Amino acid sequence: MTQVHRTVETVWQMESARLIAGIARIVGDVGLAEELAQDALVAALEHWPRDGVPDNPGAWLMATAKHRAIDHLRRHQLHARKHEELGHTLELTADPHGNDPATAADDPVGDDLLRLIFTACHPVLSTEARVALTLRLLGGLTTEEIARAFLVPEPTVAQRIVRAKRTLSEARIPFELPRGGELAARLGSVLEVVYLIFNEGYAATSGQHWVRPALCEEALRLGRILAGLAPREPEVHGLLALMEIQASRLRARVGPDGEPVLLLDQDRTQWDRLLIRRGLAALERAEALGGALGPYTLQAAIAACHARAGSAADTDWPRIAALYDALAQLAPSPVVELNRAVALSMAFGPEAGLEIVDALAAAGTLRDYHLLPSVRGDLLARLGRLREAHAEFQRAAGLTRNARERTLLLQRAAACAVLPASEPGDPS
């Protein structure tokens, strides 16, 4: 791949979501907007190697895509008034940020990306389709990455995305921000999408990097906008608190060579204290709004326990275990149960966690989820059952698609391979 092609790929990763959102505002169809954005990408691959990379490549892509959008609408004989409105969009080529002065006055949020999320999260789609489509359009995730986030087959996700775009187009869903009761109805799905985008940045499911900070930053930006948009919604503040606190650890999550650093091994002086303060303040706002704590606020309270601990040894694991008990009651899932097992093992010993993990393994729901054997390997190692732990870490390494994580798991397996003459619990 040439340097120009690498530049095109990088710019696309950075700009695709904003590009699709900007075009969707013009054409009113997210599927068509994605196609037109892809057309602009193809044009860049044709022109930039010959003419050079423009000074503002994102603005070049936006201008190219908008010209194609206008051509498309004219071909479909849009009425004259719409032509006059669309003429203003041609002025965007002079704005490096892609802001549209013709529509700014009636845009209360000023964020096409947020509008795109709410459009993709319309109730006409299933919850799974809403999340998959928004991750694809705004998170820039591949179908494979989304599939791993949902623990479902890749063809299933691909089919959801295709059907979702077709459904939105056929239903003529307007590209707008909902208001009133409709806003509240769609908020839960939007929060789920934002958090999944954040999670992909916090612990990348595949690739050569353990973290993808740009995705975390995008999710945080959207979360902060949502908090301003729905200030009386506790779970909006709960999600924002959770993301702020977790994002505070990003620098400490990787070593000098990009290798993963697990929570208990992190240098807490590298944690971002400003983000922690912001997160704790958001958690206070969520709790002050009253009512039972929701899933995001409970998870934020768990994250706050880590943030308040000066060292790993100071962590209030019994409180974390109690919070996971509450979360498992409110939003039961195999992944929550796996996290609860870890908390119980830290609070009351590895045997307490292993009992839950073994039950999850027997159920088979997480058979392809690499963190199940990873957690089981850790618990077995703590019990001195190194041979079994070695096998579990090896299996986890075979399941993960993240190169950095695979290396870490293989290192943990190797550490268990130096076996003593006899091991506690070794059937041999």
TrEMBL record:
A biological process from GO: DNA-templated transcription initiation
State the SUPFAM superfamilies in the record: Sigma2 domain of RNA polymerase sigma factors, Sigma3 and sigma4 domains of RNA polymerase sigma factors
Q: What positions does the domain DUF6596 occupy?
A: 186-286
Provide any one GO MF term from the record: sigma factor activity
Q: Which residues form the RNA polymerase sigma-70 region domain?
A: 18-77
Q: Which domain of life is it from?
A: Bacteria
Tell me where the transmembrane regions lie.
none
InterPro entries of this UniProt entry?
A: DUF6596, RNA_pol_sigma-70_dom, RNA_pol_sigma70_r2, RNA_pol_sigma70_r4_t2, RNA_pol_sigma_r2, RNA_pol_sigma_r3/r4-like, WH-like_DNA-bd_sf
Q: Which residues form the RNA polymerase sigma factor 70 region 4 type domain?
A: 117-168
Q: Which PANTHER family match?
A: BLL0085 PROTEIN (PTHR47756:SF1), BLL6612 PROTEIN-RELATED (PTHR47756)
Which protein is depicted?
A: RNA polymerase sigma factor (Sigma-70 family)
